[in-house]
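Sanity check

After download, print the first record. It should look like this:
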Amino acid sequence: MATYVILDTIEITDEGSVIDFSQLLNRSASMLRYSVDKSKALVKYNGNQPSFLNGKTTYTHAEILVEMAKSAWVEE
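Expected structure tokens:
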């Protein structure tokens, strides 16, 4: 079962990004779901949490569905 994490987009696009897409189910930045204002992005992984996501809030599938229904993620 996948685990989800919401990141600030700057953490993905910054020159010094430490995101290792080989450890994620989203294999590139183009495969991520972005918030309406593009300031946040959703990543997901299976199994053990990748170390670059340590300290980040994690969500279950049910929890992320609630988050994704919020106005920040849904075009009006």
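If your output differs, re-run the checksum step. Summary of this record's structure: The radius of gyration is 12 Å.
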